[in-house]
Each structure stands twice: as structure tokens, then as C-alpha cells.
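Dear support,

I submitted the protein below through the web form. The confirmation email said the job was done, but the results page showed an empty box. After a refresh the structure appeared. I'm attaching both so you can tell me whether what I see now is the final result or a partial one.
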Amino acid sequence: MITTPRSKCPINRALEMLGDQWSLLILRDIAMRDRRSFRELLARSDEGISAPVLSRRLADLTAAGFLRKSEVGRGKQGRYSLTERGLEVIPVLVELGRLGATIDPSTAGNAPAFAAEGPDGLEDRLRSLREAHL
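What the results page shows now:
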């Protein structure tokens, strides 16, 4: 993640914070698949993220305020939760999913069910994520 903006463009800034190959997929897995521990995110990654990359991206997303990590006792797995900033990314993920299904219709069956329910489905999902994460 780039900590000092290259320009004043808000699109550039969003890409500097979330535009790497993995960050949006990690947020997807936490928000839409309820994978909240490092072990779950690593072992169940459809795209095959490596442990060092996952560790770095989780640290970056936490430092940038998209996630927070619950502190637990020694030998136990911490759990990652979305912050309000992280929740703001969910509509972007839904739109990227719609675009992806348009580009490659064979992926449409893997879109989250709530995305097909329109704005009400998204609002319901965001409400439930707020309850679970905040």
C-alpha cells in the first residue's frame, strides 16, 4: 500500500490503498464468506494467496483502517473484522462482481445472492455486517 499519495485524485488514492492484486479479495472473503482468521483466509483462498502476502495485506488493511484485529491469548487465532471504512468497500465489490459477470458470464453463478436483490439486498447485507463486525 502506498502511504503518500502520488496525486490529489480520489480514484488514484483508492487504487493506491486497495488496488493491489489481493486486498479486495481479502475484504470479499471476510465480508461475503465470513472467513475471519488468518488460517481461514489462507487455507480457503480460491485464488491461492501465499502466507507472506496474506500477512502483509492484512497488516496493510488494518493499518489503513479497513480492518481491525481482535487481540486474543497466546496460541489462539485473532479474528479480523471490518471497520466502517471496510464496509464502505462492499458496494464497490458488488459492482465489480456485476462487471466481472458481464465480462465473463460463466462467473455469474458465483455472485453473492444479495447482489441480485438490488439496493434493498445490499442494505440488508450491510446492516447484518455492521452487527457482526462493529
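Response: this is the final, complete result; the empty box was a page-load delay. DSSP finds seven helices and two strands in the chain.
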